[in-house]
Each structure stands twice: as structure tokens, then as C-alpha cells.
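Ticket #4471: structure output looks truncated?

Reporter: J.K.
Steps to reproduce: submitted the chain below (559 residues) through the standard prediction queue, then opened the result file.
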Amino acid sequence: MPDTLTPAAEALRAEFLHLVETAAQPWQPAAPAAVLIEPPEPEGEPDESRPARRRRKREEGETRGGPRLMALLDASPLYFDPHGGTHIDVDGELHPLDAKNPFLVETVSALYHRATGQTMGKDSMGAAVAVLSYRARREGKPAPMANRACLWDGALFFDLGNGRAARIAGGAWRVAAAPVGLFRSWPHKRPHPEPAAPGDAWQLFRFVHVAADDRLFMLATLAACLVPGVARPALVITGPQGSGKSTAARLFKLALDPGTPALTMIPRRPEDIDLLLARHSFLALDNLSSLPADVADTLSGVITGAAPQRRKLHTDSELMTLHADVALCFTSINSLSDRPDFLERTLRIQLERIEDAERLADDELDAAFLAMLPGILGGLLSLLAKGLELLPSYRPPRLPRMAAFARLAAAIAEGMEEDGGARYLAEFFRNQGAQHMELAEGNLFFGAILEACAAGDHPAGTFKAVVAKLRELADPGPKEFFPTARGFAKALERLRVPLATAGIGFEIDRHRTAAGKASVRFFAVATSAELAAAPLAAGTGAVPAEVPGLVFDDGELPL
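Returned output as attached by the reporter:
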């Protein structure tokens, strides 16, 4: 070995010595070899066979597997829900009786191991679940198993999580223990903070930038979304870039139905949408440009109470019904769909752009919002309690489509300020009308009718003549759809509500002309917003104007 080392070798030697001093473990003698623990000899005769030992244990009353599991769960309360599901209360937690449910399997397996020191087989679990489910359907207690809110025992209960609920009745609310079986437990659900009474829901506008004139409308709408079993319109949050659309949807979700993730995207496979719908009370779908026609039709049906169905397995014909009681929320810059049925089931919330000097980082905004959330939630509950108290006697003279929700939200607005209900309904009509008017952007046929009638020239004549006039105004391209005279009546009927919203009516004369052609006539009508803003108020007893020339015979007038 040379007397001197190269610089590289010397550096390597120094590094090695440093590791020896700092990182190397001192030598220790090897651990003794593990001692093999022999299993105890089975009770009984040494030459007793396994079948004989099993038979002897059965005769002596010893059980294992399914029978032992049934003995452990025999005293557990059983429940059934309105949709045919069965449930069991294990250690104070309600679980669906489904052998594939991971939380039930974990809970019961831990209970079995704690009692016996052994693990449980899948067959034992499946057999026990089948027997318990049979008993639950016949002997169990009814349980609503709602997602977040439930009408029960003369009151509205709103799930706060951790065994708590807000009980709303008699124009007030209080925090109470949630009755067992009232709410379903999903892995994504998160608890609410303790709401503060009476709270202040208006603090929400410190974080959501809505024009002052639209704030009553938005608060009444959000409070009404807490009520289950009502067809609730989907909320479409729109606004320019930088207006905080995604932030607003996330905060709405946090206030009404906290869970993870706060914002969701439309699944790539349309058939997976129903799984999302059935597991949420308020579902926020973020950053959508448009909705395919089939998805818009599906959501339209769900909004008004339709229940999606799917096959349980591809090897049989059994169906599984997914019951959805959900309020939907979308964020988008433009209109999501050109389907009139879908637009009529939506309400738009328009946001204003946030100035750069007022913009907060997400962590700062979340911290500030969470600090204010108890008061905001308590304020929403107070608004809802007051509105539910007024609802039985609140009878507005005119209601839009989705009348139950509109009347409920208007009653909430009436409790917020004098004549708030009439103001809410007028805004509801205007909101839906504005969305129908957006059809003109993507529907050349609708836009052409609006253009013709706006000039005071309401088209009239045969289908062929009117279509030719409207086509001239629309000037469609070779690949753009525009109805022909043959499909004119069908296309026009699909636009009846949007046209009425715009103040346009039409009448089709099915009696053929001398040339054998049907005709149509357009005319002006009062818009829904104008009717809503009319001075007729609920309970005023206002009498309609007398129709000239109308004569009643004796006995026709009421006494």
C-alpha cells in the first residue's frame, strides 16, 4: 500500500471514518433463535378426529363462525328505511346490513375478534347479514336515513354531525340530540360547527360578491335549499373571470352540507352521476362549460324527483334504485345547456368581479370564513325557522314552475323584510326569464322569433311562409339546425315557455287553408315578470276587472 493517498482516496477515507463515528451501530450479539410455540393439544381423546370434535362441541353448546356472530349481534337494534334498506346499530353506530359494506365488516370483525380472539370468515358474515336483514324488515324500527335534513315528529331536523341536530319548529331552532336512524352516515360527510343563535346570515356576503339588490334573493334561496323533499332548482353560479365562482360554490357546500371533496366534477361516464346524486344533500359541480343533452335531461328529472335505476350485477336482472334528494350547484361562465326544460329548473346567481385589492389567499379566506361560519349557519337556520312558521298562511297570487320551492323561499323572504316575498317572486320570474333569453345565443330559431317580434312585426301565415321569413332573419349556415315547415310545430312547442317569458304568444290553426296548409299567428302577451310585479298581493281580496259584454244569468253569481 503506498505511503501517501491520492486526494480522492483521502476524501473517501475521511468520509468513511466520519460515518463510522456518527452513523455506525456498535456490535451486539445476535438475538437468540425464536422458540416455536406448539399449539395446545385439542380437548378430548388424543385420537379424536376433527368431525368428531366438531360434533362434540356442538353437543356441548360451543359455537363458532356464523352462530357465534349471531349470538354477539342478537341484542343489536335493527332498522329499515323507506327505500327498502336494512340497518343495524353496532356500538352506537348505524350500519347498512350489507356484507360488502367496509364499515360494517370492520366494525363487526373487530367486535368478533374482541369477543373470541379469532378472525371472522366472509361466509359467516354473509350468512349473518342475510338473517339479520330478514329480521329487520319484519321486526325492525322505521328509520328515515336521510342525507342531511329530515322532517320527523312534527319538526325539521338538520344534521350537524357527531350525534347533534338542529331541531326547527315553532319559528325557532335549537341544538338537540339526533334520533338514532334519522341520518345516514357517509364517509365523505363532515360535521358542522356549533351554530350560533340567532346568527347573522348576511355575513356570508363578506366572502361572496353579489350585488346588493340580489342578496335577499340569494339568502332566501340558500335557506330554502335546506328543506328536504322539495323539488329544488339547481343553482348556476356565473360571473366574469376572477369573480370567485368556485370559491362561492365551495363556501355554499361548507355552509349547507360539509364534506370532502367540497367541489366535484361531472364523471366521465354519465351512468356514474347517479352515485353522486344519491350521496349528497348539496352537490357542487365545478367549472362546467356545457352539459350534454342526455346529462341535462337526467338532471332535469332528478331535480323534480325522478329516481335513477341501474342493474345491481351484469349477471342478473335485479335493479337498484338510487333515491336522490339533492340540491345541485354549478359554476360556469356561460349557459350550460340549450334545453328549455333544464333552464326552467335552474336559478342563476350572478357574481361581481373581485377587485385585486380585496382578494385574499385561499388559506386566509378559509380561516376567516370558518370563524364566521357558526353565525352564518345560525342565521340561515333562523331565516328558515321564521319562513316555515309563515308558510302555512303565506299564499301568493301567482307562482312560477317549481311552485313549492318558490312559495317556501318567498315565505322566508317575507320573514326577512316587509313585502320580501313579492320581491323574491318577481326576481324568481325575472331570473328564469333571463335564462330563457339566453337560448337566443345558441338557438337560431328562437333568436329569429325574438328579432321579428322585437321590431313589432309579429309573424303570421302558413308554416312555410313564416319559416321562410324567420330563416331569412336567422341566416343559418349549412351545418346549423333550423326547422323546416314539416318540423315547425314541434320546434315551436318546445319554445312555448321561453317565448311566453319573453312576452310572445302564438296560436297554431290546425284547420287547413284552401291550399291545404296549417297556419300560425304570433302576438304579444304580458311577461311572467310583469305579472309578478302586478300590484295584486296575497290576501288583498282584489277583484279582476270586469270583462266588457259579459252577462250573468240569475243564480250564476255566488251569494
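Triage note (M.O.): checked the attachment and the full C-alpha cell line is present. The chain has three domains: 58-142, 201-436, 439-525.
Status: closed, working as intended.
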